[in-house]
Amino acid sequence: MACRPDGVKWTAPNDAEGIAATVARLRTMVPSLIVAEATGGYERALVGGLAAAGLPLVVANPRQVRAFAKATGQLAKTDRLDADILAFFAERVRPTPRPLPEPVLQQLDALMTRRRQLLDMLTAERNRLEHAAPPIRRSVADHIRWLERRVADVDRDLDHTIESSPVWRAKENLMRSVRSGPRGEPDAGRRRAGTRAPQPQADRGPRRGRATGP
After folding, report:
1. Would you give the DSSP letter of residue 169?
2. What CA–CA distance (Å, rounded) separates 9 from 214?
3. On the chain, which terminus has fewer CB atoms closer than 10 Å, C or N?
4. What's the pLDDT at 35?
């Protein structure tokens, strides 16, 4: 996570505890805008948590963010997007966050709650399997597979709810204009944040240049 204009940064694991901590911290910071990138599902739980908390969120197409970063000299051709660049995009482009209707907030909250419950049960059963006596190992293993299917079901519902909600702007052209305050500078005193959900290590390339990410 990176914030502008004050430069506050932090990292957190992309799991239930890390997301809860990030949401709680952002609530205290009262940002005017949070920009996340659509990363093919890696952002699902983080975006769901931020949206369910009613924070001012926009999910942007990474291609647009990359084009903006290249045009403004913030990103070399082979660099990867990171939270600093997303925060810079939020500060300069300033896509307008759209509030979620109350029924959508309730649906997201219910899905996120159920996802946490299923993951807690899944963790408990996996731990139990390590020490399970032979007569119950098959039962525990079957339950693990059932829980994994239920998590996948909730993730699909979460994806659909997020992508059909006002926070999902990945198909919009957010760069119609780059707004600025007096004398061409971004309006001061309003905190904007960029957040990037970590991807599996195998998908990560080396980061270069000035910006640093989570």
Report:
1. -
2. 8
3. C
4. 93
Is the distance from CB of 5 to CB of 186 less than 8 angstroms? Answer: yes
Following CA atoms 71, 72, 75, 81 in sequence, which dihedral angle do they give, to the nearest 10 degrees? -90
146 — pLDDT class (breaks 50, 70, 90): very high
The number of residues in the chain equals 214
Cβ atoms of 53 and 23 within 8 Å: the answer is yes
- In terms of Cβ atoms closer than 10 Å to its own Cβ (0-12, 13-18, 19+), residue 190 is middle
pTM of the predicted structure, to 2 decimals: 0.75
Residues contacting residue 29 through CB under 8 Å, at least 6 positions apart: 3, 8, 191, 193
DSSP annotation string for 34-82: EEEE--TTTTHHHHHHHHHTT--EEEE-HHHHHHHHHHTTS--TTPPP-
Listed in sequence order, the DSSP H helices in 98-193 are: 102-131, 134-163
Structure confidence at residue 78 as a pLDDT band (50, 70, 90): low
